[in-house]
Write a structure and sequence with these properties.
The protein is an all-beta fold. The chain has two helices and 26 strands. One of its GO terms (cellular component) is cell outer membrane.
């Protein structure tokens, strides 16, 4: 058995540094040689309706041209007042065999969102305690509007030189346009004071983000010293741009936290720019390219050494003209990193046909050019190391898998807020430093697959301990560096297929649990540990159709899914909800 290592190995090879607009994803749904159509319909709590069809198969008699098309539509309300959303997605792809060893793939997708969002979250009491507001509470307005449109075009070419070596070239281009107009309210709550006290504001945003990525690699096997080895050699690059305009203005009305008014007068778009207290324009371009290599050396039959590295070049230019807190500020910052080397290595030993142990190491490199110091300079890139030691198991021809890992990550030059400074170009008005040095370590265990006949399980447990090794506030050194990460997280799920006369039925149940987490500003805001239970019952009508009922948060646990500040940003997790679905495969 060969352990394939962890996700970070692939990310280190392909992604390199982060871009201004996000990572480029080269993984797509491929057309299949066998004609197949799947249909899914569902209806759930809060008027949640979804339909999806996905069809694929050959388009000519020889099967050298294959196609795939998918369309989905979802309309849903929310447990929060006024909030609703409509999603549409379209996908189409072709695979064309230019020869028996060469295949060209092309395709496109389009996603559209039309929503009335409830953004901003909820406040707490001034001392940080929860006000125990109704989970349906929304401090937004009925005219809130979010329009998002993302179009993506992609192509790839793969060529099989022989049984051992292949070449693949992939390209993808995407554009995301977002137009948003919304209102929200914030301000701490006074005990026993139902009067409208929360400040209200409205925001108008126009975002245009574009990404282009190109990746090419050769992947193959070779023989040396009587053993088989593997080699990957590749290069990739990406260019991300954003062209954003935004404006935020105060609204004259104050909001009642306990009895929100969702019908404040809607300000005209033309009023935002002359009346804004914060806003402006941001143009940013991030270009990165690099080369990478991975060598899998079979030192002996049970022992494999994986060595690899990426060499990255990164350039970012950010131009902004912002008004914040009564002051206009112009920024034209350029950041460049040349020949940054991020190596990684792993050693894997097969104890027997079921168990393997491994140890791994990887470097961290992440530019932080969107943050500026008090003198206007961009922060140094975040650097660091990841270490992992673990054991993985595989039984019953891969039907049951397990893993246990110890991990440690150390990051240096982390961005930290300098609360004693003022930077008008910053979104929060503060400057930043790269003084942060943190450590995260812990253990992760996971099991998945068929543990008994007809019983499928998934179980995962993660223990994470974080520590601040260096901080702009020296009083925090030695304490937890990220208190928002729960110390303990547990995920369990089991699904059992009945036998005999009830063989068409299956039942599943599971729990997601975590220990407490909190944020510390001038006060401590805490979410106590909690657990949510979920279940599923399914009936297989025939070989084509299956109907199922899913229930989430069955005991209707009230908890904060996101811990914000005392004034805003606290979001409840979803109350108890149910979904019935019908799925068919033809």
């Amino acid at each position: 058995m060969v352990c394939r290592g962890n996700t970070w190995l692939l990310q280190t090879i392909l992604k390199g540094a982060g871009t201004a607009s996000g990572a480029v994803n080269f993984v797509r749904k491929r057309p299949q040689a066998k004609p197949t159509t799947s249909l899914s319909l569902s209806a759930g709590t809060w008027d949640d309706y979804r339909a999806e069809v996905d069809t694929t198969g050959p388009l000519n008699d020889s099967g050298t041209v294959r196609g795939r098309a998918a369309i989905s539509q979802r309309d849903r309300g929310s447990y929060m007042d006024i909030s609703k959303r409509q999603d549409q997605a379209f996908y189409g792809a072709l695979d064309i065999d230019l020869s028996p060893v060469t295949t060209l793939g092309v395709g496109a997708s389009y996603e559209e969102v039309d929503a009335t969002p409830c953004w901003g979250g909820l406040p707490r009491y001034a001392d940080g305690k929860s006000a125990n507001l109704s989970r349906s509470t929304c401090l937004g307005q009925s005219w809130n509007d979010w329009q998002s449109r993302r179009s993506t075009f992609f192509a790839d070419l793969s060529h099989q030189f022989n049984d051992d070596w292949k070449l693949k070239i992939s390209a993808v281009h995407s554009r995301n346009l977002q137009d948003t107009k919304y209102a929200a309210s914030e301000g701490t709550i006074a005990y026993d004071n139902p009067a409208p006290t929360a400040n209200s504001y409205a925001a108008l945003m126009d975002y245009d983000h574009k990404d282009f990525g190109l990746d090419a690699y050769v992947d193959g096997k070779f023989q040396a010293f009587g053993l088989e080895h593997e080699l990957i050699l590749g290069a990739n690059g990406s260019r991300g741009t954003q062209d954003d305009v935004y404006a935020i203005q105060n609204l004259p009305s104050r909001q009642s936290i306990y009895q929100p008014d969702h019908h404040f007068p809607e300000p005209a778009n033309s009023t935002f720019w002359p009346n804004m207290y914060r806003g402006g324009t941001v143009k940013e371009t991030a270009i990165q390219y690099g080369t990478y290599a991975t060598l899998r050396l079979r030192l002996t039959e049970p022992l494999m050494l994986i060595l690899g590295s990426r060499v990255s070049w990164y350039e970012n230019r950010r131009q902004s003209n912002n008004l914040a807190w009564g002051e206009w500020a112009v920024q034209d910052a350029r950041t460049q990193e040349n020949g940054e080397v991020t190596p990684f290595a792993a050693l894997i030993y097969d104890l027997n046909e079921h168990l393997s142990v491994y140890a791994s190491y990887a470097d961290v490199f992440q530019p932080q050019s969107s943050y500026a110091t008090a003198d206007g300079a961009a922060l140094k890139p975040k650097i660091g190391e990841n270490y992992e030691l673990g054991i993985k198991g595989e039984w019953f021809d891969g039907r049951l898998n397990s893993s246990l890992a110890l991990f440690r990550a150390i990051e240096k030059n982390g961005a930290q807020t300098d609360y004693l400074s003022f930077c008008a170009t910053s979104s929060d008005g503060y400057c930043y430093t790269d003084a942060g040095k943190v450590r995260a370590q812990g253990v992760e265990a996971e099991i998945s697959g068929e543990v008994l006949d007809r019983l499928q399980v998934f179980g995962g447990y993660t223990y994470t301990q974080t520590k601040s090794l260096n901080d702009i506030d020296t009083a925090k050194e030695g304490g937890a560096s990220n208190t928002y990460v729960p110390r303990h997280m547990l995920r369990l799920w089991g699904d059992y297929a009945l036998d005999g006369a009830l063989s068409k039925w299956s039942m599943g149940a599971g729990v997601n649990a975590q220990s407490s987490n909190y944020r510390v500003q001038t006060i401590k805001l805490e979410q106590a540990g909690y657990a949510t239970w979920n279940a599923r019952v399914a009936y297989r009508v025939d070989d084509t159709w299956t109907v199922a009922l899913n229930g989430n948060n069955l005991f209707d646990k009230t908890y904060y899914n996101t811990v914000g500040t005392a004034s805003w940003g606290n979001f409840y997790g979803e109350p108890r909800n149910f979904t019935v679905s019908l799925k068919g495969n033809f």
